[in-house]
Amino acid sequence: MFDQIRHRIKDVDNVVEPVTVSEAKTQVKELPIDAEDALVAKYIKAARRNVEESSERLLVDKTVLVQLDNFPSANERIKLPVITESAAITKITYTDTNGESQVIQGTEIKLANIPTPNYIYKTDGWPTGSDVIIEYIATKEDAHVDGLVIAILLTVAHYYLNRTITDVGRYTNVMNVIKAHRRYTSS
Length: 187
Known about the structure:
Blueprint: E1 6-11, H1 21-27, H2 37-55, E2 62-70, E3 78-79, E4 87-96, E5 101-105, E6 110-112, E7 119-121, E8 129-138, H3 142-161, H4 172-179
Antiparallel strand pairs: 1-2, 2-8, 3-7, 4-5, 4-8, 6-7
């Protein structure tokens, strides 16, 4: 068995939020049409990230960097930490036994994403190496975006209308919408 996986996730460059500032303003009736666009945009991003985390679903594409101390045994699969309906492996970089930096292009990697969670493997086996970094794009899940947009809109309205900490009871309607789309995973 190889060492524990560490990973970082970030939105891809030039991300397009599933909710526009105009849509959010329509949701928050008290919001003047020309007021606080920058703040509303920040609320949208925060709300989307909250909904993604709570539902365990991606609403925008993500770049995921996975770090391993070393490769697993030659024929072992590597479980990707972010579950997605599709992923594109960009590249894998590592240090070989001679201390040289090496790159495995994404086209050399096989992705097994049915059933989820996603795994990757190399048909001719993993090389021997350390300081492994796997970079891939985890794609948004279009089938769930529309349903979870409601949760984003409700959350943006909540953020705008409650600019201080509020009790959790008022937040229940948002969580109920998210619950309908939550990915249930077994441990």
